Each structure stands twice: as structure tokens, then as C-alpha cells.
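In response to reviewer comment 3 from the previous cycle, which asked for concrete evidence that the modeling workflow produces usable outputs, we include below a single protein chain processed end to end. The sequence was submitted unchanged, and the resulting C-alpha cells are shown without manual editing.
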Amino acid sequence: MPETRRKYDPEFREGAVRIVRETGKAIAQVARDLGINPGTLGNWVDRDRVERGETEGLTIDERARLRELEREIAELRMERDVLKRSVVLWVKEATR
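The workflow returned the following C-alpha cells.
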């Protein structure tokens, strides 16, 4: 039977990260105190550090922009391929 994933609201996440940041306690200890997986809290803390510029990585805004650009690239590639095919067909018709 698959395990159901718990959803945490943004306020809870921010509070948990703030506890780690302000108290200096270990992530595992804070996670145990809050009853959440240490890996989950670690991910939240890592993301917070990136957002604050303390470590390198993509911020949430940068990730969103990257996804948008990747979608645009895929669309442009598809349009390019359609145009290539239409030019080939046009050349074949013109040489008959």
C-alpha cells in the first residue's frame, strides 16, 4: 500500500526553518521535535539558504523563469521542425 504524502502549509515550513536558523539546533533534532522527516526539513533549510543568497543555487523565481524558457525553447524547436518540413515539401513541388 503506497504511503500518503503529508502536505505542510507555508507558515509551518517557514516556522520550522526559522527554528533551525535562529536556535542553531541540528536539523534532525528540530525535525524530531516537530514530528517531520529530517530530510524534508533539510530540503526546506537548503532552499531557504539559496533564497537568502547564503549558498549557490537557483531561487524560486529563477527556477520558474528556467521552466518558462525551457517551454519556449521546446515550442520554437517544434515550429522550426514544421517549417523545415514545409520547405522540403515546397522544394519538392517546385522541382516537378
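The mean pLDDT is 92. We consider this sufficient to address the reviewer's concern, and the full set will be provided in the supplementary archive.
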